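User: Hey, quick favor. My workstation is busy. Could you predict this chain's structure for me?
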Amino acid sequence: MNRLQGKIAIITGGGGAIGTATAERYAAEGATVVVTARTEDRASEVASRIGNNAIGLSLDVGNQESIRSCIEDVAQRFGKIDILFNNAAVTSREIMQHDTTAPELTVETWDLMMDVNVKGVMLTCKYTIPHMIRNGGGSIINISSNSALLGDNVRFAYGTSKAAVIGLTKYVAAQHGRQYIRCNAILPGGIMNADLEQAKDYVAKFVPHTLIPRMGRPADIAAAAAFLAADESEYITGQAFSVDGGHLAHQPQMGDMRSIERPCD
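Assistant: No problem, here it is.
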């Protein structure tokens, strides 16, 4: 532990399950954590549970001035920014239920998804990178999704936006590697959260298609994020890592075929 001792980390979407788990892990590793959320109350609630090495600030990734102001505030308070964890995204059930197929999708839903999931990541990078350059480097970790790699019968805009995050990640890595700024993406698979705890039918259909026989946990993503933020991963950049229990590492029919073929366990 203490791999992040003395580092300043900004976490967007800090009020969600993955953001909260990562904030807790970064703090446990010794970092000073700036938890951000759309409302300062939510960010401060998470920060207060972590303790003295965390603060909560308001940051709306759909608003350019909010992003600029928050990042400048952090840089002035602490004198540097070492880690940027871009987790904020459109995930509300109310909006996601309208993100289906291209013919059904409204332009308003598409624009919202791109504004938050892609432009928001671009803007946090835009305003954070100059501070990292002045400090001699840093690590940016962007949350993408397995939905970026393969098509599905729903979430047309979400999957497309997360594919764009992978491209953005590689461009930041390519353009700023010589300044010792690393940029990588984490692609979560099926992650258990408060909503999925009640969705037993979904879990029953999903788990047979993972190699590790369980749903993912926010802590699984936080563990990968801690490694990518730490100096021990300083030679890793421009990469997209699926943290999915092997969900995309096998033939698509493998889960269904277990019932008629000899199992490996």
